Amino acid sequence: MRRLPPVLLEDGCPRELISLIRTILAACKEISFRVGQGALSGVLGSTLDENIQGETQKKLDVVTNQLLKDILLESGYVKAIASEEEDYTVAGNPDAEYIVAFDPLDGSSNTDINSLVGTIFSIMKAPEGSDAADQSIFMQPGKNQVAAGYVLYGPCTTLALTTGKGTRFFTLDKTHGTFLLTQDFAQVPEDTNEYAINASNQRHWQPAMQSYIDDLMAGETGPRARNFNMRWIAAMVGDVHRVLCRGGLFTYPTDTKDPNKPNKLRLLYEANPMAMLIEQAGGIASTGTERIMDIQPDAIHQRVAVILGSKNEVETCLGYHK
Ligand code: F6P
Question: What detail does the entry give on cofactor binding (predicted)?
């Protein structure tokens, strides 16, 4: 099985970008170990703090954020970082070419129940001549990403990675500490019978999404004339991984539950990197009205509606939004 650096070199990926990806993965290997230790490492449970987005921070959110932040800033490969757990962006090496946005531990409410969690990252180039301390260097649409990926900490530790030449899976060989290529060019099947929603929010959704899901739930007696299956891991990283592996439609749509927070998922370090992985595997990622990777961000922690997955099913869902 092939190691990550030669695979990326063969693609013509710049050496500095490979080094940056390897730096992120070094932190992820440590995170994989800590998550795997569970209660033994004393990091389960919550802190007494909230992050800037008003969410209770898990101890592992804090630990994993610190790990990634330290290793990235010390490496010299990043000009600046943006993290779900940091109020503002953090400046790094002013001469570096790349900027990284990350969610250090997506689905962290799953840590205490020994369920799936993962690290999501998005890499872009900093605009030429830009200032490392200027937050606006992150205000670029997702189509500018040069690489995106996640590391899923499950029964095995899997990396899904794209540098714009398809989506690949690597598996962490824990005996040697190396990520080995286990699937080249993942393809999301165009059709699916599976969808992922938090159904408890259905009454708060907009009419278009309500009627789309109603029709799926009606099964073979409804307008779709076939039965669908539902799955919900409550960690986007786990749900998107399933979609990449066997197809499906994942959505976290706009809702009216909290008027101050109509959308849940964050554009820069959740929606954009997942959208790139999905599109590179032949799927679609939309808000319902526009391609996720075309959105011009205006805030670091901006939230968006997400509908992604199997091409034909996402198109059907988008049809309800027209
Ligand atoms: O980051 C937000 C997140 O944890 C996603 O990974 C996940 O899809 C969603 O929240 C789960 O939300 P809910 O609490 O509605 O299940």
Answer: Binds 2 magnesium ions per subunit.
For residues 152 and 143, give the distance between their C-alpha atoms in angstroms, rounded to a whole number.
23
Q: Is the pLDDT confidence value at 307 over 70?
A: yes
Q: Is 236 in the pocket of ligand 1 (CB under 6 A)?
A: yes
Nearest to 86 by CA among 75, 72, 97: 72
Length of the chain: 322
pLDDT band at 48 (very low <50, low <70, confident <90, very high): low
Give yes or no for a contact between 99 and 80, defined as CB atoms under 8 angstroms apart.
Answer: yes
> Ligand 1: which of 252, 254, 303, 304 to mutate, judged by most atoms within 8 Å of the beta carbon?
252
- Regarding whether 205 and 170 lie in a shared domain, the answer is no
| 188 domain residue, yes or no | no
Question: What is the CATH number for 139?
Answer: 3.30.540.10
Dihedral (CA of 124, 91, 19, 188) sign: negative
pTM for the predicted model, two decimal places: 0.97
Give the CA dihedral 218, 219, 223, 225, nearest 10 degrees.
-160
Tokens of 148: 């995106």
β-partners of residue 89 are none
Looking at the fold, whether 47 and 169 belong to one and the same domain comes out as yes
The alpha carbon of 39 and the centre of ligand 1 are apart by a number of angstroms equal to 22
Whether the predicted pLDDT of 300 surpasses 90? yes
Q: In the block, which residue shows the tokens 């790349």? A: 98
User: How far is Cα 23 from Cα 273, in angstroms, rounded to an integer?
Assistant: 18
For the stretch 90-130, pLDDT in tens is 999 999 999 999 999 999 889 889 999 999 999 999 999 99
Do residues 178 and 52 share a domain? Answer: yes
Q: Is residue 189 part of a domain?
A: no
105 is in an annotated binding site: yes
Question: Does the beta carbon of 106 lie inside 6 Å of ligand 1?
Answer: yes
Rounded distance from Cα 101 to ligand 1 centre (Å): 18
